[in-house]
Backbone:
């Protein structure tokens, strides 16, 4: 479905729709679609000039505060929209916080929080290997503060896990790269690649063929990618680390696409088969790095 | 001081390191800014958004904050710079396979719009214009922000007919753009 197809029929509803796009995750699609399908014009003046004296009111009340010709110009010159988004996200008042966020965005925020905490957990054992006498002052201060913050964050996470209501608890991922301790910081590069390959291979340990179970499994796999991308990989050289993260970004995009296919009612077994192929390739890549 | 939602970003950031409440301060900062950051990133970098944000948060966690720093603006800049770098890296390959240095004249927003989806959408727009001109003019009026009442009058059709044509045209465009075979006719 096109993002612009969600625009309401009646003009009085347009400002609210536009506001929701500005705080949502599909504004890029809206801009593309308006650019390609509409009669897109190049902005003639800066956004600041276009908004003029209504800027403050826009930040307080949303695009309903804009005169109709200005609002229309935003659709006609979609190049303004990304700049407008940055403005309202950075300087918008309380109104902008009350707008509903798409479910996809909310899910991603929750998933990222888990991934960041997992990355911090996996980074923790690196720190004792830093030798203060050989470090510059800045590096040492960074390491100590990072270690302290990491420990505090982990502590906070544990407390948070223990104190929040049970129905809101998310299950920790118990397999693959998102599993705590899956990335051994003290290993050799070969061992590290082997551990990564083994983590990837765990995808095949369960073969869900219904949509919900496969989506859950796929989300866990995707979360593992986030952990790999967000983590430092101390056993690897900087080039190897970057290569791994670049590869993982591409795998992550393929897993995202598979999730979208699942959500679009495609046959789960067909989707799983395609994911199998990606995982097989990624395991082969990791093993090839190990042999090298 | 115990971190609470009433504290400013600067107060929370000052607790990240060397405080008993660093984890809670980090969580509060995350909850305060994660939605805006991800919306910003997803609108510009789509599939890479989540990973870019996670990296930015990890950097934020390590960063030495000054009281005057605007944390959200800093996060936006980190995501933007990393996203543009990644995009340039992926696209700066010359014919002989050697990476080319990034061009300072690249406008990332413009470059990113020149993707395959944009080309497909343009192709579908042309097809709509050729095959269903009566739908095409309705969609143009709609995307131009012209109120449907005046647009339907101008086009000499009823408001109900306008809405119906618009809906069918958008469906057809969506199917055309989603088609794997480029150049496929409108459904």
Residues:
């Amino acid at each position: 479905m096109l993002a612009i197809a969600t625009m309401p029929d009646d003009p009085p509803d347009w400002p609210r729709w536009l506001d929701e796009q500005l705080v949502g995750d599909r504004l890029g699609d809206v801009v593309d679609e308006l650019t390609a399908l509409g009669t897109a014009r190049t902005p003639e003046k800066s956004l600041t000039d276009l908004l003029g004296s209504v800027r403050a009111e826009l930040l307080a009340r949303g695009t309903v505060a804009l005169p109709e010709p200005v609002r229309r110009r935003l659709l006609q010159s979609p190049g303004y929209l990304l700049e407008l988004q940055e403005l309202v996200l950075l300087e918008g008042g309380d109104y902008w916080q009350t707008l509903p966020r798409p479910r996809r965005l909310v899910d991603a925020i929750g998933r990222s929080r888990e991934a960041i905490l997992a990355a911090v957990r996996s980074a923790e054992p690196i720190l004792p290997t830093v030798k203060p006498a050989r470090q510059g002052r800045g590096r040492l201060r960074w390491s100590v503060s990072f270690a302290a913050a990491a420990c505090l964050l982990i502590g906070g996470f544990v407390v948070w896990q223990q104190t929040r209501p049970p129905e809101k608890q998310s299950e920790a991922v118990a397999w693959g790269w998102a599993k705590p301790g899956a990335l051994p910081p003290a290993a050799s590069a070969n061992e590290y690649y082997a551990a990564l390959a083994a983590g990837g291979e765990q995808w095949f340990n369960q073969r869900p063929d219904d949509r919900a179970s496969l989506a859950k499994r796929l989300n866990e796999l995707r979360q593992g990618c986030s952990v790999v991308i967000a983590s430092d990989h101390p056993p690897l050289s900087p080039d190897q680390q970057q290569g791994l993260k670049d590869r993982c970004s591409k795998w992550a995009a393929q897993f995202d696409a598979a999730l979208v296919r699942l959500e679009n009612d495609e046959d789960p077994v067909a989707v799983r088969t395609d994911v199998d192929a990606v995982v097989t390739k990624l395991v082969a890549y990791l093993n090839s790095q190990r042999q090298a | 001081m115990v971190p609470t939602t009433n504290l400013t970003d600067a107060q929370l950031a000052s607790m990240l390191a060397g405080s008993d409440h660093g984890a809670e301060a980090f969580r509060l900062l995350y909850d305060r800014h994660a939605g805006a950051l991800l919306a910003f990133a997803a609108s510009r970098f789509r599939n890479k958004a989540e990973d870019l944000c996670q990296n930015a948060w990890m950097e934020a966690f390590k960063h030495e904050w000054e009281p005057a720093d605007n944390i959200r603006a800093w996060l936006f800049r980190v995501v933007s710079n990393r996203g543009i770098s990644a995009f340039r890296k992926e696209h700066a390959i010359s014919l002989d396979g050697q990476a080319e240095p990034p061009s300072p004249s690249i406008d990332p927003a413009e470059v990113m719009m020149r993707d395959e989806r944009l080309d497909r959408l343009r192709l579908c727009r042309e097809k709509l214009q050729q095959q269903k001109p009566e739908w095409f003019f309705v969609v143009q009026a709609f995307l131009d922000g012209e109120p449907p009442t005046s647009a339907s009058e101008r086009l000499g059709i009823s408001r109900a007919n306008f809405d119906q044509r618009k809906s069918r045209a958008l469906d057809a465009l969506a199917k055309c753009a989603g088609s794997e075979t480029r150049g496929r006719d409108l459904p």
